[in-house]
Write a structure and sequence with these properties.
Helix content of chain B: 40-55%
Largest sheet of chain A: 7 strands, mixed
Shape of chain B: globular
CATH class of chain B: Alpha Beta
Helix content of chain A: 25-40%
CATH architecture of chain A: Alpha-Beta Complex
CATH superfamily of chain B: 2-enoyl-CoA Hydratase, Chain A, domain 1
Mean pLDDT of chain A: 89
Distance between the termini of chain B: 36 Å
Strand content of chain A: 15-25%
Structural class of chain A: alpha/beta
Order of helices and strands of chain A: EEHHEEHEEHEHEHEHHEHH
Order of helices and strands of chain B: HHEEEHHEHHEHEEHHHEHHE
Strand order of the largest sheet of chain A: 3-5-6-7-8-9-10
Low-confidence stretches of chain B: none
Mean pLDDT of chain B: 96
CATH topology of chain B: 2-enoyl-CoA Hydratase, Chain A, domain 1
Largest sheet of chain B: 8 strands, mixed
Number of domains of chain B: 1
Distance between the termini of chain A: 17 Å
Radius of gyration of chain B: 17 Å
CATH class of chain A: Alpha Beta
Largest interface: A-B, 61 and 51 residues
Number of strands of chain A: 10
CATH architecture of chain B: Alpha-Beta Complex
Oligomer: heterodimer
Chain lengths: 291, 267
């Protein structure tokens, strides 16, 4: 348990599995162009750096599968509720087709995967949102999967780690999507009351109704560097105040400065930090002291 | 019930003559004593809160405030609260829990304020905390949407045991104008968006998000405010009786289930 937050060499090997050719949803080509600093980086170099911009350290968006491979012990992930699929609760024009197309494109049924896994041998319940699926907006399926993940973690007495990324509540599901904010928050309250640990990892972008619910309710809140986190859309605010906002507005660093993020963690260190945080909160560690 | 479109109802609730939070408080309660400030940053006039009596029962009242003219609207920030408004609501609700008073909320807000200071002080975190804390608040919470239930800004005061809506009230994940500009990329399609998004009291009762619809006079609450105060009082009396009878464990279990069951998906 010592050296909990000290940088050590024990890191996930970058480029562990990223050479698989399955990322149909990621623009291909020879270069990755960083949306933050506009630098073009060779794809190979970009993959080597775990899809982090080597110039400005912008932590680019990952698919849920890519994230899973970087964080969990190989072969340990057991998925929950993968068959959940959204319907069209308010008969929103074109919604079903849009979902159908995204299911085909991403290989996911909706914008989050949840399940149990091991991180360096420690069992946790994990949820990873995928911004390539309708900007990971939260509708019934996302809300239900997160709620069930917390309910199962409460029952089994596991910690929960959520990688958040979202454009907010899914407008196409109307009021039902807004209610998912209340539903997930209530499930977190129950998990918390059992003395169980919840860690949120904010990733690019975490906004809107997700910021105003489960992303802001963790015991410990981590964030990847340079990502966007906020409640209101930047453009909405700019239109209200009629001026351009500085680049660092709503960044992870901005949030930390204002007291809303415990620790900004680089991608290469995430697996180790998460392992240590989960281990730190294990009841057995206290039991050895008979407390 | 009058047969009006969502757009027509939206126009009724936007009428500046419509009763606002202070009208409802005066029309329904006695001895209202306003209590200010979140004890962390400041006072937010967009949300008023305090103690009052209802049929001799001490209650805590929390309400978003709309102004009736520009001057008032500036004072109340057009009903759009900053984080300190939500934190004041949380403080007053904890006080209500301590003294075993039910909490009664009135919601008529365009939404939580979107601005630089609101972001700096954690608008998202403030609302999220209310959602979590009210899910386990050990005293009954009754919320009435009296006009606009604007997204997270409304939900921040609407985790409750019973949700009622006035007949013409709307409750939505995004304002029709916002939906039009984001989903149709054309803010002028506001009317179409309003009528598509299923935001009326009737729609919400159908989704089991709203538990009751409170009747308004023809043309809207401003045509006969006293009738509306009476209807609200009648509803409150019933809702309070039901929920005050429950044990705390049952109250919290029912509240959990109320939100737990909402979601429409295939499995």
């Amino acid at each position: 348990m010592k050296d909990l937050f000290k940088v050590v060499k024990d890191r996930v090997k970058p480029n562990q599995k990223s050479k698989k050719k399955e990322k149909a949803d990621i623009p291909s080509g020879l270069f990755f162009k960083c949306p933050r600093c506009q630098t073009s980086i060779f794809n190979e170099e970009f993959e080597q750096s775990m899809r982090v911009c080597t110039k400005c350290s912008y932590h680019s968006r990952l698919t849920a599968k890519q994230r899973l491979e970087m964080i969990v012990d190989e072969g340990s992930f057991v998925e929950y509720d993968s068959s959940l699929k959204s319907k069209n609760p308010i008969d929103f024009p074109g919604y079903e087709e849009k979902v159908k197309d995204l299911v085909k494109l991403t290989g996911l049924n909706d914008a989050i995967i949840t399940g149990e896994c091991l991180i360096k041998g420690e069992k946790v319940v994990i949820g990873i949102m995928d911004s390539y699926f309708m900007m990971a907006s939260m509708g019934s399926v996302v809300g239900e999967k997160i709620t069930r993940a917390f309910e199962r973690a409460t029952e089994k007495k596991f910690s929960v780690i959520l990688f958040t990324a979202s454009g907010g509540a899914r407008m196409q599901e109307g009021i039902i999507s807004l209610m998912q904010m209340a539903k997930t928050s209530a499930a977190i309250a129950k998990h918390s009351e059992e003395g169980l640990f919840y860690c949120a990892v904010l990733t690019d972008p975490t906004t809107g109704g997700v910021t105003a619910s489960f992303a802001s309710l963790a015991d410990i809140t981590l964030a990847e560097p340079k990502i966007l986190v906020g409640f209101a859309g930047r453009r909405v605010i700019e239109n209200t105040i009629h001026q351009r906002l500085p680049d660092e507005f709503q960044s992870a660093e901005f949030l930390q400065e204002h007291g809303f993020v415990d620790k900004i963690v680089e991608r290469k260190d995430l697996r180790r930090v998460l392992y240590r945080l989960v281990k730190f909160h294990k009841k057995e560690e206290q039991k050895s002291w008979n407390i | 019930m009058e047969h009006l479109t969502a757009w027509e109802r939206l126009n009724i609730v936007h009428n500046p003559k419509r009763p606002n939070a202070y009208d409802y408080i005066e029309g329904i309660f006695e001895n209202y004593c306003e209590l200010k400030g979140d004890r962390l940053f400041g006072e937010d006039a967009a949300i008023t809160g305090g103690i009052a009596t209802f049929e001799n029962l001490p209650v805590t009242v929390i309400a978003t405030v709309k102004g009736k003219n520009l001057e008032q609207n500036k004072k109340y920030n057009f009903s759009m609260a900053h984080p300190e408004g939500y934190r004041k609501a949380l403080r007053l609700s904890k006080q209500a829990e301590k003294f075993k008073r039910p909490v009664i909320c009135f919601v008529d807000t365009t939404g939580a304020f979107c601005g630089v200071d609101a972001e700096k002080r954690g608008q998202g975190q403030a609302i999220a905390t209310n959602l979590l804390e009210w899910a386990r608040l050990k005293t009954p919470i009754i919320t009435i949407i009296t006009g606009e239930g604007g997204s997270g800004g409304a939900l921040g005061l609407a985790v409750c045991d019973e949700l009622a809506m006035l007949e013409n009230a709307v409750y939505s994940v995004i304002s029709p104008r916002g939906a039009a500009s984001i989903l149709w990329r054309d803010p002028k399609k506001e009317e179409e968006a309003a009528n598509t998004m299923k935001i009326t009291a009737e729609d919400l009762k159908g989704f089991e998000v709203a538990d009751a619809i409170i009747k308004e006079p023809i043309g809207g609450a401003h045509n006969d405010p006293n009738m509306v105060y009476e209807n609200i009082s009648e509803y409150l009396l019933k809702a309070l009786k039901t929920n005050l009878q429950k044990s705390v464990a049952m109250l919290l279990q029912d509240r959990y289930n109320k939100f737990r069951k909402i979601g429409i998906f295939d499995e």
